[in-house]
Amino acid sequence: MNRRRRIYEGKAKILYEGPEPGTLIQHFKDDATAFNNKKHEIVDGKGVLNNRISEYVFNNLNAIGIPTHFIRRMNMREQLIREVEIIPLEVVVRNVAAGSIAKRLGIEEGTQLPRSIIEFYYKNDELDDPIVAEEHVTAFGWATPQELDDIMALAIRVNDFLSGLFLGVGIRLVDFKIECGRLFEGDMMRIVVADEISPDSCRLWDIKTNEKMDKDRFRREMGGMLEAYQEVAKRLGILNENDRPAGSGPTLVQ
Length: 254
Description:
Strand content: 25-35%
Number of domains: 2
Distance between the termini: 25 Å
CATH architecture of the largest domain: 2-Layer Sandwich
Structural class: alpha+beta
CATH class of the largest domain: Alpha Beta
């Protein structure tokens, strides 16, 4: 670990130089953050679960022809990924009113939206990741109109896949966030899904009880975050009873 060159460290992951040109190693930390790092705890075992769940999702996306940066999982906390140029946008797809859209528009949380809605947020912690329009994205050069079309097409396809995947295991996909990047292959460039897809980046509710099975358990001081992530992994069939990470629960970071 110490011999590898660290490329970048974010709130939940570290990127290291990969074994071959054009690759990186993505390491999942146990840090749980909310409100742009204003709330920060260590949840022992969270990184392991997110690594496994994200691996499962990305493998399936690759298999159905949705391009991603994911190559393979290397160990319990790390993935080998393709190096991409990240587009500075968080792309949020909403199927049910929850979180900020419910507050902004005065919609009761849990209301089914008339159709899936795609929102863009400018990735800038100092500005608290403000919501932006397509006009902002193209005017400031964060993405071209064609790239924006590609991003929206990817987001819709990911939403269709994830909605069916989670519905099949009794989970309602309320909303989710993805990031996209430019993958350069020789003279060619294409937009791919990057970062991660896990309960950190999705709102997941139990279909029967509406029990929250995602990061809102941390944001809203509900407790049981690790257990909720374990339940998602169990339903997806990617963790056996005896190999679930037995975390000690959240630890406040001073």
